[in-house]
Amino acid sequence: MSTSTNAARRRRRVSSFRCLNCRLDVSVDAPGTAHRNHCPTCLWSRHVDDTPGDRSADCGARMEPIAITTRSDGEWLIIHRCVGCDELHRNRIAGDDNVVVLFELAVRPLARTPFPLAQLAQL
Ligand SMILES: [Zn+2]
Ligand SMILES: [Zn+2]
Description:
This protein is an alpha+beta fold. Helix content is about 20%, strand content about 25%. It has one domain (about 15-110). It contains 2 helices and 6 strands. The strands form 2 sheets. It has a 4-stranded antiparallel sheet, covered by helices on one side. It has a two-stranded antiparallel sheet with strand order 1-2. The termini are far apart. About 15% of the residues are buried.
């Protein structure tokens, strides 16, 4: 085997992962992001990074999508919370993320208000 073939093999990166939540096989190539870090169908992630893409976290537990936030430029970010250690991460959404699940997360506080909405009319 030639040296150049060995070098190419070492450079080859993981091309897919299996979602720990819904078991979908997911390609790491995602539109709009350099490294996909969550499942496009259920949006769950896995605690493998300390900072995005570094793969240096030892935890490895599932990370639940718990909320949507926005950057100053309007881009949506998913807040993930690790079910193993409670760490919170912010991750950019990808172009093929499930829009229904994204919206369900975004409107969750309004869909589950801690007080009757009729109270707003009395303010
Ligand atoms: Zn999934
Ligand atoms: Zn963790």
